């Protein structure tokens, strides 16, 4: 029991150290480009908060400068009555998919309501002592990254209870990428609820406008929005996240690879969960002899407790030094890794069989379509696969333009 506790504390400390290590250099790099997040523009929105009881949907990425925005705003005299936490929790060190309980924030004494446990959205009771909700969470621009789902649930709750939502916008590190099949309605799930491509190419503020504008809230609801825009930002501008957005996206490399690599969570291949290099490596035991590179997933408290192929050597691709600037040049997801590894895998019928897996699972739900799996199995070319995404992808790009806040 003590060993488990010490390991949990050790991994949590590593994650917090990673957050601290991310912050100074990358904030300086972003500042050199003139990028100022919505949260950092306190002079713009502090007067609007005066006299209001504030609820905040935040996590570890919600920083003003180098400090958590809750701590900063409390020090500035803002009356925060409730904190709401998404997947991975308020402090961001809960594992992927792990339920998070309600709690009290020890630093401020403010009640913390988990929206990744028994509640998926704030209730009327939760919002009874809230005049204005604030949403400040860093997204990474992928449909299966659950923060856009949380955004919609918060918007729904605000609309139902006549509360305004203030969004402190942040850049999308994959904001230049709009690609992938459109989610088919019958494949809606917790890892995808909107008819959008895998990489949606929008900031949280822009996406909130799309949710309202496209009527995606139930019963024709509209959420009253106020957005503090990012200053000096364009979608083509590289943005290095100052804080890891979740425990398994712990490097800038993993964040840029994620939209392409997360599809492998619906296969028999490990994406490096259970290592300190998740979403930068791909492999499986049965690829021994076909690839020289190997890694061994282990149980890591706070990151991946029961990773696929735990305690077994996996062989495959090392993408830690892959040139991610290719994505900005091509504006395309990488399908070649999926095609290559399927071709290399010796037991084809097991490649997409996740019945014994403890991963996210269902490849079709991740892809948003049943076609992609069948196309890979049939040996279709990338050009043939991409052609099948039309006209849906082009239609989405046209719709997206209506809601953009940045060039």
TrEMBL record:
Keywords: Signal. Coiled coil: none annotated. This is Uncharacterized conserved protein UCP016719. The keyword Signal applies. PROSITE patterns: PROKAR_LIPOPROTEIN. Pfam families: NamZ_C, NamZ_N. Residues 256-406 form the Peptidoglycan beta-N-acetylmuramidase NamZ C-terminal domain. GO terms for molecular function: peptidoglycan beta-N-acetylmuramidase activity. Residues 54-252 form the Peptidoglycan beta-N-acetylmuramidase NamZ N-terminal domain. Residues 1-20 form the signal peptide. The lineage of its organism: Bacteria, Pseudomonadati, Bacteroidota, Cytophagia, Cytophagales.
């Amino acid at each position: 029991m003590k060993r488990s506790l010490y390991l949990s504390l050790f991994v949590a400390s590593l994650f917090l150290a990673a957050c601290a290590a991310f912050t100074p250099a990358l904030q300086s790099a972003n500042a050199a480009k003139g990028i100022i997040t919505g949260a950092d523009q306190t002079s713009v929105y502090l007067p609007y908060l005066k006299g209001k009881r504030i609820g905040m949907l935040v996590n570890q990425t919600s920083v003003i400068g180098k400090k958590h925005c809750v701590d900063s705003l409390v020090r500035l005299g803002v009356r925060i009555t409730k904190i709401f936490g998404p997947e991975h929790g308020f402090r961001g060190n809960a594992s992927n998919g792990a339920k998070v309980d309600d709690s009290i924030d020890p630093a401020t004494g403010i009640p913390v309501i988990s929206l990744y446990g028994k509640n998926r959205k704030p209730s009327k009771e939760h919002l009874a002592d809230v005049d204005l909700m604030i949403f400040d969470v860093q997204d990474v621009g992928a449909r299966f990254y659950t923060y856009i789902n949380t955004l919609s649930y918060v918007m729904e709750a605000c609309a139902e209870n006549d509360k305004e939502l203030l969004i402190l916008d942040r850049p999308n590190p994959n904001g230049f990428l709009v690609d992938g099949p459109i989610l088919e309605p019958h494949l809606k799930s917790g890892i995808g609820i909107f008819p959008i491509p895998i990489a949606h190419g929008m900031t949280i503020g822009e996406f909130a406008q799309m949710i309202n504008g496209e009527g995606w809230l139930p019963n024709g609801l509209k959420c009253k929005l106020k957005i503090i825009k990012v200053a000096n930002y364009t979608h083509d501008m590289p943005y290095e996240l100052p804080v890891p957005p979740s425990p398994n996206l712990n490097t800038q490399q993993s964040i840029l690879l994620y939209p392409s690599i997360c599809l492998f969570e619906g296969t028999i291949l490990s994406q490096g969960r259970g290592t300190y290099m998740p979403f930068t490596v791909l492999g499986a035991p049965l690829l021994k002899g076909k690839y020289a590179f190997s890694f061994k997933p282990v149980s890591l408290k706070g990151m991946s407790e029961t990773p696929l192929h735990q305690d077994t050597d996996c062989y495959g691709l090392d993408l830690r030094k892959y040139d991610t600037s290719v994505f900005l040049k091509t504006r395309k997801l990488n399908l070649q890794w999926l095609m290559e590894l399927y071709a290399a895998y010796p037991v084809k019928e097991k490649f997409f069989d996740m019945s014994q897996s403890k991963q996210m699972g269902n490849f079709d739900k991740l892809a948003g379509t049943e076609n992609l799996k069948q196309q890979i199995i049939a040996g279709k070319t990338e050009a043939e696969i991409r052609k099948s995404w039309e006209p849906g992808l082009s239609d989405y790009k046209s719709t997206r333009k209506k809601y953009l806040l940045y060039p």
